[in-house]
Amino acid sequence: MLWVGIFVFIGWHNLDPDFGWHVQMGNYIARYGIPKTDPFSYTMPSYAFIDHEWLTNRLMAEILNNWGYMAEAVIFGLLAGGLFWLLVPKGKQIWAIVPLLFAAGVWVCRGGVRPQILDWIFLAGLLRLVWNEEIWKKWRWGVVPMFGLWANLHGGFAIGPVVLLAILVFKNLEIKKVKKTNPKLLIGSLVFAVKKVDWTDVWVWIAGVVATWVNPYGLRIWYEVWMQITDSNLKWNIAEWQPFWVRAELGIWLLVGLTASLARMNKQKIDNWKVGVAVCLLVAGMSSLRHMALLAVMLVFLATELVEKMAYTIKKDKIAWERAKKFYLLIVVIATVVFLEEVGIFVSKSGKGQGGIVYPTKAVEFLRKQNYPGQMFSEYGWGGYLIWKYPEKRVYMDGRMPSWRWTAPKEESNWAFKDYIKIKERGEFAQEFAKYDIRVVLWTKHSLIGETPQQNQGWWAKFMRTGLGKESVDLKQKLEEAEWNRVYEDEVAVVYVRR
What we know:
The chain is an alpha+beta fold. The protein has helices spanning 2-13, 19-32, 54-67, 69-87, 93-108, 117-131, 133-139, 143-153, 159-171, 199-211, 220-229, 232-237, 250-265, 272-287, 292-314, 318-351, 361-370, 383-389, 416-426, 430-436, 459-466, 475-481, and strands at residues 173-177, 190-194, 375-378, 438-444, 485-489, 493-497. It has 22 helices and six strands.
């Protein structure tokens, strides 16, 4: 219940920047059906938008319309509780304490009312199914409807077929040590041999992939996945897609170290596929912070199993067992301190309104009353909120659009996010504003992440906030130099109107 309560609290106090467009898309689907083009932006309205989480959006809209936002926070908190249930088999809780405490910071800091939590749950379900060979043989065809449902709930569904393929490859590869007879033919002293393939597993995987095609977009949904994977622009401009060195997360690295140490000591008692998949997810997590949560799911499974095996080995020696219990207690204390540091601080900041993005609530009320003509340009992180709270106006940019690029009609953008970065970082807005008849700019007064100017001092804070430490121009100053009028200002936002 504590686990659920933490996630409910985080969801209630931290409104995700994409929440607004999720629920508005759900409302749009209820009224008009699945959209063929983008219904919310004025920069790319003809773009063939793929809503790879259309079913989740529809459900989120129904929950909000009927029960309110608190119900959303409770439901996603319960989903996080389901993750805990999947990760820790009955009777294994004692061995999972340390891995869970180390991993908790990763999940909590990415928690809230966010569809990506579904990826953690589906991955945990897949690993639970595969972990025990007897269970896998009995229920493996359950992967097919699992993948089919996943593909309609969130774009992270691709991790399922990829992880399962990696599992099957590592299961069927046998690594043998041989004497190095010819350095030109062998890599080191290892050679790989293919075991007897279980063709039922292969057919399960193929059927699972085909099941992902059963969605409103068919095969095109994989194009959306590929476009995001290959978009290096995300890595340097969107916080959750940035590489691991941008954010220091002590818990997950202690969990990596713990798992690696236990694996080394238990190398004769661990399946090759478990190590292989863990390494693959480690690489994915290092490449993108977004995937650290998936790595944590895998490592909790693996570390819990290894701790249990180590314990049963040591139990044979009473003296060693007494020493091991004291050492394990010490590790629990260390893990608890890390948990309190990472989770406690984040929860505390959330309670004070500093854990997430601050939104321009008062400024939006002002704009709705004034109803200025022309289009409006605003901060990227506010796009989803504006789609929800100011639906009378379309947006320049929101969280769905960073990877959208195509050959557009003359009056639209080929790549709106690239144009947005040019305006934000260089202040080159004249041509874009004239193209779309932008007459209003809604911009941040200070940092977007619940901070005051005094809290933003120091090179490390600047580096962490921008990813690469790049300085952006002061767009407000550029607008004033171009003789735009500042017509509104509060502690969060400012509004400029073209003269």
